[in-house]
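WARN no homologs supplied; continuing
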Amino acid sequence: MEQTAPSCHDDHGAEGGGSARKSHHSDQVKANLISRLNRIEGQIRGVKGMIEKDTYCDDILNQIASVQSALNGVGKLLLEGHMRSCVIERIQAGEHEVIDELLVTVNKLMK
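OK structure emitted
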């Protein structure tokens, strides 16, 4: 499934006090990510319902594994787009600290 990678830029007027960098996903990528997250949200509600109904633990654990796999899929798509656009752009701009930032992020994803 070939997708257009998001592009990044600095937005010095960003609110919220967090990172001023933003990515801009194509409409197709954004729709795909939102669709995946909506399914995951439904799965989470399902897990909660299973717990409320005293469903057999192994069945709940299998559903949790499915949710984790789905989240990993979203993370992989975002990571790929980030590496293909934001990271490359920042390295080309001489901002080599992006490599350390990326390594920290990958370590968090792999926990």
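The longest helix spans residues 57-92.
OK
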